[in-house]
Amino acid sequence: MKAFSRRDAVAQRLAETERAVKLAALEKPQSEADHGRLIGAAALLQSIGDSNAVVVVGSLLLIRRANPTAAGEVYIRTLSQSELIFLEHNPALLRDPDALYLRFSGPESLPRERAEAR
Fold first, then answer.
1. 73 contact partners, CB below 8 Å, separation of at least 6
2. Is pTM beyond 0.90 here?
């Protein structure tokens, strides 16, 4: 019984160690990529000012919706490949920050391909 318990404990520790190594390997590159995206988004926001805008850089979507009574809204997210393809097929959305925001801001409003994948 003790041998079995020790074997289980060793297997559990090994699994935990493997998970920790995988997370460390994934988290650092992802963190660096996210940091770069945030710096880029901040620079874009400064250049846009207070006007409405839609900017797509690579897979990064930035929507700035001006609001005359408040500071306005900013929406930033990374798009999936199916969402990028959707925008290629619907370029008119890129000229309408409000419509684009409604389309991409909630799970019920995502393009069909992405909503079905959830």
1. 63, 64, 65, 67, 101
2. no
Asked if 54 contacts 63 with a C-beta cutoff of 8 angstroms, the reply is: yes
Half-sphere CA count of 103, side-chain side, radius 13 A? 22
Task: Name the nearest CA neighbour of 82 among 116, 108, 53.
Answer: 116
Give 59's DSSP letter. Answer: T
Give which of 79, 51, 76 is closest to 63, Cα–Cα: 76
For 13, phi then psi, to 5°, come to -60, -40
pLDDT in tens, 24-45: 776 667 677 777 777 877 787 7
Looking up tokens 């306005």 gives: 72
Structure tokens given for 8: 């289980």
